[in-house]
From TrEMBL:
Domain SHSP span(s) in chain numbering: 49-164
Keywords from the UniProt entry: Stress response
InterPro entries: A-crystallin/Hsp20_dom, HSP20-like_chaperone, Small_HSP
Protein name, as recorded: Heat shock protein Hsp20
Similarity-based family: Belongs to the small heat shock protein (HSP20) family.
Organism superkingdom: Bacteria
Organism: Limimonas halophila
Amino acid sequence: MRRSLFPVAGQRVAPSDVATRDPFTALQRELNRAFDDVWRDMGVPGTQLAETIGTPSVDVSEDDTNVNVKAELPGLSEEDVDVTFADGVLRIAGEKTQEKEDQDENRQFYVSERAYGRFERQIPIGREVDEDNIDAAFKNGVLTVTLPKKAKGDGARKISVKRAS
């Protein structure tokens, strides 16, 4: 059951394949499209009235030693992003704040499609991870998180079996 809900965990899946196989990603995409249509019909460009900027686009890949996550976070800096890992789930959260321009208060906007607000993305990793050596780097609006895999055999220990009396 878990494998069908999280297609990336334990399988190698092409990024374009994730959206078609992951029911949550497909549902999120359809809901976003529906809300965009509603706002557009009301004369509002994009999701301007939305409280959040949505979820950042991510790529999840793995090689022999690491699980790699790249998230697009345009317009943000490393101070705006909070990355945590707990119970096998990578959480990327933050906030994009609106820039204030005091010098031209009479400016009228005709189109404003840039979104502001809080966002959060939770990504189940599905692998044993060496939590002490997780690394995150931010460059040009792209967050790269490297999660080293635990070596096989870590966490398992031999238990001696004794004769019961």
